[in-house]
Design brief:
With about 375 residues, the protein is of the alpha/beta class. The chain is built from 10 helices and 18 strands. Strand 9 and strand 10 (about 190-200) form a beta hairpin.
Amino acid sequence: MSSAEKQSYDAIIAGGGLIGCAIALELARHDLRVAIFDSQQPGREASWASAGILSPAPENPGMISMVPIGKASLALYPDFIAQLEKLTGMATGYRAKGTIEAIFSSHAREELSTIVALHRGLGLQAEAISAKEAREMEPALSEEVAAAVLRPNEASVDNRLLSKALLAAAKLSGVEIHAGRAVQTIWRDGVICHGAIVGGQKIPARHTIIAAGCFSSQIAGVENLAPVRPAKGQMVSLRCDNTKIERVLWSERIYLVPRNDGRILAGATVEHVGYNKTVTAGGVRANLDAAIELAPVLATAHIEETWAGLRPDTPDHLPILGPTDIEGLLIATGHYRSGVLLAPITAKLVGEWIAGKTTSVDCDRFSPLRFAATKESAQASRV
């Protein structure tokens, strides 16, 4: 019998990615007994595949409601990284150097004004700069860029290094890690969740937290509360010895993310093709074409690595965060393209919910109960 079957826990976390490990570390810091259960080695799914951009800027109007939580999480990042690196002695590749959003449009001036006004209206720092100024800051940018927006407060982090550091920190803080042991179902009795069932064994816990990314919906008993599906994203890692990019570069078609070791990540596609992580010629071509359009010198780069990951998408593309109508069950999944950014605030929020405190950010919009309400409304309209 394993240690997990001998004792109960204050909290069981289904999923050992960035979100799950960040939550585990937060709870362990408050002297809770915590265990993570993952279907494989933790941190090998979306957390491993990401680009690590830390930007609360909305990519489309539907994401505007995420700006406050994104801003709150970005503000936590410097201390989050400092504490993590101090505890583990491990680097995370954190780079607080900002983002340049390049505009190619023939209506660049109007587009520039709209983007800057939107960002400032949301309380985000954004500065209109000329194409010449943008190229002075980032010489790799294309001569075809018509104008640009500087977003100075944004950052990036090496998500793979961050995942390793978070896992190490969790272990150092007393969190039990159970690799290759997926949560199959929640252990429920009426409106109370008593823990989880793993490998046919009941594991008791006061709190059960579902943080298994796009696999959360495969856990029996939470399908209606966590209706996530995979959104595939293909990435390319480049190395170009005759250029250096300092900031995240962004266009309508691509983002380029520099790493401290000289690599430049280019991504990413969005494809709803189920749990398929195959790298395709079309996906690689789309990334390379857009990368070279944004920074033509990358035509001379060599390809170091290609991969695909599965983001956890939701019906409204917003995260699923908070307590449920089942006592002892919380959901922390569906972060879609913002999982790395939202890891610190998600951990903080789960800690606040478990402690019975008022949350530091209003999260009603992201409640797991919104899907049940939508379903009931749809059923009522058919009656």
